[in-house]
Automatic annotation (TrEMBL):
Record's subcellular location: Membrane
Keyword terms of this UniProt record: Coiled coil, Membrane, Transmembrane, Transmembrane helix
Pfam families: LemA
Keyword Transmembrane: yes
Entry protein name: LemA family protein
Source species of the chain: Sulfurimonas diazotrophicus
Regions annotated as coiled coil: 114-141
Amino acid sequence: MTALIILAVVIVIIVLMYNSLVAKKNQVDNIFAGIDAVLKKRYNLIPNLVSSVQQYMQHERGILEKVTELRSQAMKPGISDEQKIALDKQITSALGSIMVAVESYPELKANTNIMHLQRTLSEVEAQISAARRAYNQAVTDYNNAIEMIPTNILANMMNYRRKQVFEITEDERKNVDVGALFKQ
């Protein structure tokens, strides 16, 4: 009788660990799907932004082509989560370059379409930032679960692997030199 009770307790523990791992994996997938939706919204804004600034920014043609190319890479079906994260970093950097370049064109800066696009992009960037924080927390919980004893044993049997978190780029880590911005 005691052996049956011990066996039942062990089975319950294994089932709880299994369910916990599956829940953490699904949480990561669910939050990443939310990030995907916001990134898609950003990708839909990019053609409007590029077409709005294209005629003014002939000198920054390379930036516009880079953003367009990165967008088309990000829109390809079947790219991995890691590729999406890498492309997101590049697009964030390229969009920042466009916004800095817009400041050099007074007519463009005063254009109502550009102002609307800048506001919309700022809102989307805030949504992406919030979704990244939620994703990183879910990934940290998931990675802890698949690496800690005893759930790591079950995670290895389920072939669960570490997930990559969103990290900021080196440019985003630098302090903004406000004085230099006013000198331009």
